[in-house]
Amino acid sequence: MSPVTDRYAVIGNPVAHSRSPAIHARFARQTAQDIAYDRLPAPLDGFVATVEAFRAAGGKGLNVTVPFKVEAFDYCTHRSARAAAAGAVNTLAFRDDGVHGDNTDGVGLVRDIGQRLGFRFEGARVLMLGAGGAARGVLLPLLDAGVARLTIANRTASRAHELAALAGDARAAGCGFDALGSAASGEGFDLVVNATSAGLDDAAPAVDEAVYDGVRLAYDMVYGARPTAFMRQAGARGCPAVSDGLGMLVEQAAESFFIWRGVRPLTAPVYRDLRAELAARS
Ligand code: ATR
Fold first, then answer.
1. Annotated binding residues for NADP(+), as ranges?
2. Which of 26, 160, 161, 199 is deepest in the core (most CB within 10 A)?
3. 233: CA distance to ligand 1 center in Å?
4. Is 69 a catalytic residue?
5. Is this structure's pTM higher than 0.90?
6. Cβ(179)–Cβ(153) under 8 Å?
């Protein structure tokens, strides 16, 4: 590493299994950018202190992961519209005029679904399962992509209603899982996105499987070496295309890289590498 190498990292707890260093190393090689990108573990009560030490040592930017995305939002002096809508920040850029915060998760989701998977958002009827931080993070980019309708369904219905109200868009509506079996599913969906954390226990969200009838794509925001429980559920019901969120991870990283370096890396070869690595480990 030369003395002028710009330093970046992903901060989180835990962060040991993050794939971000491998992704950014590939982006840097591909675009001939002189950067170093590490993992930065922080104690649960030590986000700000860890960030400040990294900045003091000359760090230029950070990706932020669980559980610090809201703290990162509070820490910024400048926030993008995407970050404001998400209420959370996954990308920090340290600049002369302060700390810039952005959120690239939603654009990562939309690019992966729209470009790699070839799904047309314009006019689509979208069902999002979950109403937590992950769901909120992708709300605005989904609406901006031109969907006709965005139904947010959550195990706890009140959180879905709150999130739909927060979107402030007539196309967004919230409901509980129980309401999906009847009215909402009667209209059908083109795309279902799983933004719940049910998959952490290898469980699928407990929705009436009839919601998958007629769906063209079922997309899980988490990823793994094997199909997730949600993907298996949608596939078993006959959904013609299912995907995990590995491509979203690569796309959100590419947008962060662009924010920092002003260069857009190619994502397809990086996605292929990561997919092969994951498969080799299973
Ligand atoms: P995240 O940042 O991952 O979104 P979160 O803000 O804690 O984390 O939100 C977790 C989301 O997953 C919520 O929508 C939660 O539903 P509730 O609001 O009803 O708790 C959802 N979730 C977690 N476990 C679930 C499960 N087993 N089945 C369905 N939904 C689940």
1. 130-134, 154-159, 221, 245
2. 160
3. 18
4. yes
5. yes
6. yes
Q: How far apart are CA 41 and CA 38, in angstroms?
A: 10
CA distances 214 to 48, 130, 162, 198, 234, Å, are: 47, 20, 28, 23, 11
Which of left, alpha, beta for 262 (phi over 0: left; psi -120 to 50: alpha)? left
- Evaluate: CB of 87 within 6 angstroms of ligand 1: no
267 CB under 6 A from ligand 1?
Answer: no
Query: Residue 137: CB within 6 Å of ligand 1?
Result: no
Closest Cα to residue 260, out of 32, 7, 38, 11? 7
Tokens of 38: 């590490």
Do 106-246 and 6-103 fall under one CATH topology?
yes
Q: Which of 24, 60, 69, 261 is catalytic?
A: 69
Domain ranges of the chain: 6-103, 106-246
Residue 155: both structure tokens together: 């195990």
**Structure-token match 């992950």, residue found:** 134
Annotated binding site for shikimate: 18-20, 65, 90, 105, 223, 252
* Confidence at residue 281, expressed as pLDDT on a 0 to 100 scale: 82
Q: What is the pLDDT of residues 12-71, one digit of tens each?
A: 999 999 999 999 999 999 999 999 999 999 999 999 999 999 999 999 999 999 999 999
Task: Find out if CATH 3.40.50.10860 is the number for domain 6-103.
Answer: yes
Residues 6+ apart with CB under 8 A from 46: none
> Model confidence over 227-250: pLDDT tens digits?
999 999 999 999 999 999 999 999
| Residues 208 and 175: beta-carbon distance below 8 Å | no
CATH architecture of residue range(s) 106-246: 3-Layer(aba) Sandwich (3.40)
For the chain, the average pLDDT equals 95
The reported pLDDT for the residue numbered 185 is: 45
